[in-house]
Structures are given as C-alpha cells and as structure tokens.
C-alpha cells in the first residue's frame, strides 16, 4: 500500500471509527485558548428591548468580538442603552473603552424583529455609523453576527466573518450527521443524516450548496446538496473511488479525485455532473485538489516524487504544462488550501510522527507551523483569510479548532460527549 493510499485511508478511517458514547449535543461549544498580542477595548451595552426578544443580541456581539482574539470587552453594566440615547463618550473612555456600542431590538407588526445600533469612537468622540437590520425571529442571531461584522470592519479595517457558516460531520448514535452552524457553532441543524460515513464537505462560492462524499450506497459518491431546498444531485459516481470535491471560484466546475482509471487522478466536472474531463496525467496518485482564488490554478497532493507533496498546475490540466512542486519543507505534506487572497497556503505536514497545520508564504516559500497538536487534518480558511479552521484531537477526542494565520489567536470548538470532523468554513454570505 502506497503512502498516498494511506493518507486517503487515514482521513476515511478517522471518519469511520469515531466512537461516540450517548447522544451528541448539536451545538459546538467554543473555548478561546489564545488571543492577539494587542486587544482593542470595547464596551457593548445591553440593547434596549432585547429582554423581550428571542435572543440577547448584545451578548452574542460581545462573544463574537471576544473569540476573534482582537477585542477585550469592557464591562458595560446591565442597563440597556439605545442608539437614540445620549452617550457620555468621555465617561466610557475613562472606563477604558476605546469604542462603545448602543442599540435596540424591536418587534415589528409583521412579526419580524428590527435591530438598530450605533458604534462610537470614544477617543475621537464621534459616531462610526451603524445599521438597521430586519429578520424573522429565527434570524436574530445572524443579525447579531452582522452587527459584530460591522464593528470588526470599522475598527480592524478588515471584513468580519461572524456572519459566515460552518459545515462539519458528527457521528452520534451510530449515524453520521452533516451539520451546518453559525460561525460560533450555534444554531446548528442537520443537512444530512446517514448510517454510512460522510466526508469532505466543500462550500459553493455563493454559500447555498455543499458538495461532499457520502458512502450511503456502500461506495464513495460525490453529491452537491442545495441547502435551501434540500435537493441533492450526484456529481460523480464513477467506478472506484469518487472523492475530494472542490469548487471553482465561479461555482461552475468542481475538481474531484477519481480512481476510475486505476490510480487516483484529478478530474474536472461541471456543477450539474456533466462534462467529466481528466486533468492530471500521472501514473502515481494525485488527489485533494483545490482551486486558487483566481480560478487559474489547482493545487493538489501527489506522491509522484516518492512522498506526498503539494503541486500546482493550470486549471486546464497538465495538458497545459506539467505541474510544479510547491512544498519543500518536510517530506510529507498534504491537504492544501489557498488563502482567499492567493498569497498563503495552508496544509498538513507530518512532523515528528504527528500531523501539524502549517502555513506557507507562496511568494517566499517560507513555511511555519501554526499548531502544537499532532492529529491535525482538513484545514479551511475563513473568508477573510485571517483564520484557519481544522480538525484535531484533544484528550483523545475529535474537536474542531481555529487559529489565526499569525498563530496568536486560538479557539477550540467541541461537541459535548462526542467527536467532530471534516470542517469547512463557508464564504461571505450575499
């Protein structure tokens, strides 16, 4: 058995053999284990009217900002403060808050909820604007995430990812569940439940679909699952293994790894399952494709040099030119993922007998370990490129973890009484 075959089986076996005692909690629990070197002090007051709403919006905003690792929450007390109230910005500055947030939550006659807020710079003594958001009761958590995104962008200068979603696989009661949740692991729901393994979920660029591999027909088959409707389409059911789906940036094409010709090779297929075409032409194993953000290149794992390494080829395939090796640090590198700006590569490297998450500058080639764990797998960049979600183990149990690309901010997302694998971080929502 080749090393590349073992790599594929390692991921599969991890998914197949997760033993879970009892029912797993559907929600992920978040533990922040590291923060940035400097944190921005901010006070978020209780929103007026939120005591009568289904969600405590201000508490969700505070939790979002805290888990980013870039903010520290200054105690704002329990008294609600509306966006229309007069605010003593100097007083909040004296309490150590460089920014202050006030807002309100109101139920509208049509049953929807309206969230209004204002963000203030207490140092400059000025308003930084705000938003008016409307949603059904079930959408209030997402409205809170959008408030946090606005704050993050105004104060950090980069787009926030609190209003994005996660997908991951939990095994509970002998069944595998593909779950979709908010970025904080809450508001989780089951997209697919099966007695057979589900692996390799991948978000479409517009965030409405997830491609994945399901073994429900006793063999690996690639599906595309439309989340709003629940409708599924088989994308690849070729002879042998069908695995590792990856979307092109325009959402029209998926790259997949198929063994229909013998050794696993990379193919492209249209998003409706038509137009299958082979991209790699090797006699060894090529797998785990992922597109560059501009759609012009595909990165993938290959053992063509004797050991698994990461290569890059044209999205048109090797007929347009031979693939070029990308990773040179370490002798065993797999699971490539390219940052949204195309400047960095996340991957898993076998180091000292364990598997660690690495990040590589694609211009300089410099690679850096981001973790000190030894069972890392399945990296996935946040849509803003500042964090990487991955699966690992803590005390022998599978968890999800997220780390900032500078390695300073860390968080663990775990399921009470169970294990979780196969994470994928969704795109910015439209």
Automatic annotation (TrEMBL):
This is Tol-Pal system protein TolB. Keywords: Cell cycle, Cell division, Periplasm, Signal. Its main location: periplasm. It comes from Paraburkholderia tropica. The Tol-Pal system is composed of five core proteins: the inner membrane proteins TolA, TolQ and TolR, the periplasmic protein TolB and the outer membrane protein Pal. They form a network linking the inner and outer membranes and the peptidoglycan layer. The gene is tolB. Residues 28-127 form the TolB N-terminal domain. One of its GO terms (cellular component) is periplasmic space. One of its GO terms (biological process) is cell division. It is found in: Periplasm. Part of the Tol-Pal system, which plays a role in outer membrane invagination during cell division and is important for maintaining outer membrane integrity. Residues 1-26 form the signal peptide. Belongs to the TolB family. NCBIfam families: propeller_TolB.
